[in-house]
Amino acid sequence: MTIKEYIDAGLQHLHVYSEGFSDLLYFLALVIIMGIITWIVHVLTRQWLARIVMKLTKRTSTNWDDLMFDQRFFNRLGLLISPIVTLVVFRAYDWTGINILMICINIWITISFLLIISSVLDGINRIYESYPVAKNRPIKVFIQVIKIFFYCAATIVIISILIDKNPATLLAGLGALSAVLMLVFKDTILGFVAGVQLISNRMVNIGDWIVMPSSNADGDVIEINLTTVKVQNWDKTISTIPTYKLVSESFTNWRGMQEAGGRRIKRSVNIDIYSVHYLSDEDLENLKQSSLLKNYIENKQREINEYNAKVVNPLDRRRLTNLGTFREYMEAWLTANPDINLNMTHMVRQLQPTATGIPLEIYCFTASTQWLVYERAQADVFDHLFAILPLFKLKVFQYPTNMEWMEEKGA
């Protein structure tokens, strides 16, 4: 090869290199310009447009616009406007590398649009939760299903942009993957079906007190979503239960108690059988001093005297017992107690005797369903019961302690 040929070959390589270098500079210039335009539009949307709209929403009398248009909405709106402006500006350029840039911008627009849709759906959910009906009919499950639909649609659109295919072609191929999709989204599908059943049948609402021992849940429901139900237990821990488990397994919902307006007291005290006896005339006179028992004893004595006047054998005569009179006293005391809900069942009943005595059960409902008020009312009932028993010469059955055994031995 001659010197001239070497020189020509070198010039040719230099020309090709210079063309490639110029294309690279052109690409970098476009990227820098696009970045500047995007940043300017983004700042204008986030700062100026957001401030104007936020001021307008605060002047309105309704609060739904405040819940809909938050700062996150405008941040995502800026992400959408910026690539659209960039796409309009650079679409007129005819350059071989512009196709890659357009693909990136289209994917950016798709993701930004998805984020805006998600923000709008969250705003709709916040607006709905501001109304009282949301406590009984939450729509968060449906909002999440709509989100999943848009996520899937955006994924298909992005893939179609990358491979330059029609999205309809990809949708046609999803039929073969339906079994795989069913397996992957099994919990989501089960959660959606269970969520619809929970909401439509009002099985669980936000704020309900539920007890589910299998999931160590005992507290208030704070959230119901597509896949899980969150329960804040009384020790302030959070139990997360799969939504479909509330349909497939049993649990206790205390909403009925709260709506009824009374919480049940059902507790018994074992009475020593050997302390049950007939009341003497002196005992009756002492018990008559109680305003709760005076009318009962007088009416009962009159009824018994009329019956005994017709009976010859002393064994057949009727007499008042201390246990029966004590039951009447407790029923009258419960009726006069303002902490007891008299519109619901209230009684003092005797159960089947056992080896530990005669169970005397207090069955009633408190006038308040609040836990602290309920426990206080229940304690007051049994405090009075234990204190008043000796006046009826009744004893509570309990296993003897060492002190009692020593006293009996010394006697």
UniProtKB/TrEMBL annotation:
Which residue spans traverse the membrane?
24-45, 73-93, 99-121, 141-163, 169-193
Pfam families found in the cross-reference section: MS_channel_2nd
Annotated keywords: Membrane, Transmembrane, Transmembrane helix
Which InterPro entries did the record assign?
LSM_dom_sf, MscS_beta-dom_sf, MscS_channel_2nd, YbdG
Q: SUPFAM superfamilies from the entry?
A: Sm-like ribonucleoproteins
Q: Where in the cell is it found?
A: Membrane
* Residue stretches making up the Mechanosensitive ion channel MscS domain: 187-255
Q: Which domain of life is it from?
A: Bacteria
Gene3D superfamilies linked to this entry: 2.30.30.60
Under what name is this protein listed? Mechanosensitive ion channel family protein
Task: Tell me what organism the protein belongs to.
Answer: Butyricimonas hominis
